[in-house]
Write a structure and sequence with these properties.
single chain; Rossmann fold; Arc Repressor Mutant, subunit A; 3 domains; five-stranded parallel beta sheet; two-stranded antiparallel ribbon; 20 helices; P-loop_NTPase; Origin recognition complex subunit
Length: 464
């Protein structure tokens, strides 16, 4: 389970209601149940469960007793017993400390009110301590005597000892990465589900699976205990939700209104979230990764460059963060190419990396003109107009060699079928640009690429 987030849950109202109703039946109504939370990773399963448990604690005044068993670490019964014993032992000790503190307060009050009865009270307290010690020794002997018995009997004995000092409290077993518990015999799952047959304490078994076919992986005896009790989580973050999350996280609250920097920060954030270039970037990002966790990670990386010299977020910060989190290896290869150009007698000769980037810029301009398919002849004609204006010399065979290099690197892709490809001259085969224009702009703006300033200006002037 992931740690609790600092922001409200967005877009999961239905899931919150269902999980909240399930946990309330166990904690408040004292009913034992089992349910499955199914869905891909980063769809909000842990976030919803953590939120519901915090809400239960706020309403009941008691922190829920949660035992988390991770499929990576606790798939075998011995490791699971250690975790269960630790949690129940700590909870029992906490309850005993609270009980002793309450008794101490009551004793102090009685001593002040009834001084003559002090000796009798001390004898009674000593008798209670002896009874408590005897009960502890008996419980310890009971647990040690059954360590060689089955996993179910051991856990049941622990729960019986625990409920003596925590009457009426519920226990939540959370099986994280539940699909990993199904790799071998599912005795552990079956034993935990059998705990629901006991009247006390009430037990909730919550399985969290990152695969949707988890029901097919369960044995019949385990599957029957879950029946139809499962909640499906699917990625459903929309553009509006993403903007709502960013607005909630980035805007400073009213408590910062007196700070001289707060007002300008909030105005810059509002302007950024309404910027056309940023909205296009965010829409492209949402098409690839739409889960809120990825958005928080992106924001975390973008914020790391904020300092006194760069006090406000920009679109470039988000693009840089996205490139850091999901680097495009093809464009990274282009960035790593050395040597941009050379000159002789005032004529500039483009070397291969800069020439390839020049052809990519020509295709990028076609994309901005809403032309999605083009051939070498079209690209070369457009590039030649730029080259003549900049006094550059690029022969057609050299440009075609650079064009074929782009095909080999899969930066452009043929769109013709094989039959059409054989019948069409190479220079007239239609291709499509694979990187999006924004990625090419990032390469052009990167000083480390050492591209000619004329190529950079040609590729970015329309954007500016």
């Amino acid at each position: 389970m992931s740690p609790a987030h600092l922001v409200p849950v967005f877009g999961l109202a239905r899931e919150l209601e269902l999980v909240g109703r399930f946990c309330e039946q166990t904690e408040v109504n004292k009913e034992s149940h089992a349910t499955l939370l199914m869905g891909p990773h980063n769809t909000g399963k842990s976030l919803v469960l953590n939120t519901v448990l915090r809400d239960l604690e706020a309403r009941t005044g008691n922190k829920p007793v949660v035992i988390v068993l991770d499929g990576y670490l606790h798939a075998d019964e011995a490791a699971a017993l250690v975790v269960i014993g630790d949690v129940l032992g700590m909870q029992a000790e906490l309850a005993q400390q609270q009980q002793r503190q309450t008794q101490a307060d009551q004793q102090q009050q009685l001593q002040q009110e009834q001084e003559p009865e002090q000796e009798d009270k001390q004898e009674e307290q000593e008798h209670e301590r002896q009874q408590e010690s005897a009960a502890r020794a008996s419980a310890a002997e009971e647990i040690s005597a059954i360590t060689e018995l089955t996993f179910h009997s051991t856990v049941l004995a622990m729960l019986n000892c625990w409920k003596q000092v925590n009457p009426g409290r519920a226990v939540f077993f959370v099986l994280d990465q539940m699909e990993l518990f199904t790799k071998s015999k599912q005795n552990l799952l079956y034993s935990l589900l059998n705990l629901m047959q006991e009247k006390e304490p009430p037990v909730a078994i919550i399985g969290m699976a990152g695969v949707l076919h988890i029901m097919d992986m369960l044995e019949k005896r385990v599957k029957s205990r879950f029946s139809d009790r499962y909640i499906l989580f699917l990625p459903n973050a929309s553009m509006e939700q993403a903007l709502h999350i960013l607005r909630h996280v980035l805007l400073l609250p009213d408590g910062f209104s007196t700070h001289p920097h707060a007002k300008e920060w909030n105005s810059r954030v509002v302007a950024l979230l309404e910027d056309k270039e940023f909205l296009e970037f965010l829409a492209q990002r949402q098409d690839v990764k739409s889960d809120p966790k990825d958005l928080f990670n992106l924001l975390h990386v973008a914020m790391k460059d904020i300092d006194e010299r760069h006090p406000f977020l920009t679109v470039h910060d988000f693009r840089k963060a996205a490139a850091f989190m999901s680097p495009d290896m093809k464009l990274q290869a282009l960035k790593g190419m050395p040597a941009a150009q050379s000159s002789l007698a005032g004529i500039v000769f483009l070397r291969a990396p800069a020439l390839e980037m020049g052809l990519l810029v020509a295709m990028k301009l076609f994309e901005e003109d809403k032309i999605e398919e083009y051939n070498f002849e079209m690209v070369y004609d457009r590039f030649q107009k730029f080259a003549r204006d900049e006094f550059m010399s690029v022969t057609k065979p050299t440009a075609f060699a650079a064009f074929e290099s782009l095909l080999e690197q899969e930066l452009i892709k043929k769109v013709a079928r094989r039959a059409e490809e054989k019948a069409t001259p190479k220079g007239f085969l239609m291709v499509r640009l694979m990187p999006i224009p924004a990625q090419i702009e990032d390469v052009l703006r990167d000083p480390a690429c050492m591209l000619p300033q004329s190529v950079v200006t040609w590729g970015t002037k329309w954007v500016s």
